Amino acid sequence: MKFKRSFGSTFAVFSLALVTSVSVSAGPAGVDTTNENGTPKDRIGEFTGVVEEISDHPSLDDVQKVFLENDHDQKAHLLVSDSTPILGADEITEDTLITGYYDNMKPITMIYPPQYQAVAITTGELDENKKAHKFNEDLISTDNSLKLNIEEDTKVINNDGEKFEGDLEDRELLVTYDISTRSIPAKTTPEKVVVLFEDRETMNTTYDQKIEATNMKEDISSLDIVVENEIIDTYEPYFTDDMPMVPVREIAETLGYEVTWKNGQIMIGNVASLTIGEKEYNYAKKAPIELIAPELKAGRTFVPLNFFRDVLNLNNAYLLEDQIVIDDGEKME
């Protein structure tokens, strides 16, 4: 299967390969905007791999799922809508090398392989004469590696492929250029500039809402919960705020923890505690971790799936296509 986009349509297509990441320090409420070392997360996440399969989304008519795998056997799905810019080759087919870019500030459902809403796709081998980064008021990338000189014939478009006439300062830009100086920063007159995330909030609201609604309506109640390679007999999982919720007692006990009540709190062994309706989870003597609050359903306590990774520090807690897997085996990456 393949899909094709032409430059004259709603898809902007021109030669563009490697895109580096953009650093920002702010994001939507509830989304962690810093890395473990305290540095700001990159605004643009990216995944490069070879296309293994292209299929129609089972619920959305205008969305396709592109399955990728890279040289390190890491896998990912890209959700590609009718408005996603595809930059590079005229068409994408199986065995095409592509890079998908997504908004790293958006919450991601704990699905494996991970599933990203693509904001742009580039094709082909990596190329040093392309760059995506945030550029400051002097049009210097925030990593101080490239300074742009915009001329009248520089083609500037927005994330929807339309001509952009606004200011470029303090924006995330995707640029392609021919030559640059050997100075620091290097100076270049770009051939093309794409203003990333311009009007993204309004441009893709419907698409984002459709994706989120589809995730919310997905029925996971019949999925097996597999804990350390053992299917456990337990209560049905469900979604809350796009996060799988699973029964904590049976899973924790299968992992070897004793589950008890103490002073109104649920204790997971001697290492973790939680309270129904409260977002703060305690682990050992570390600072509390905020996740979706535990819920009481049919007399059982349910916790978000990421509790087992973010609080109990297990390597894997993922929603797969046909089961939920929780274990401390080799990391799924």
UniProtKB/TrEMBL annotation:
What residue stretches are annotated with the Copper amine oxidase-like N-terminal domain? 235-315
Which InterPro entries does this one have? Cu_amine_oxidase-like_N, Mao_N_sf
Record keyword Signal present: yes
Q: Cite a single Pfam family from the UniProt record.
A: Cu_amine_oxidN1
Q: Where is the signal peptide?
A: 1-26
Q: Is Signal there in the keyword field?
A: yes
Alphabetic keyword roster: Signal
Gene3D superfamilies registered for this protein in UniProt: Copper amine oxidase-like, N-terminal domain
Q: What is this protein called?
A: Copper amine oxidase
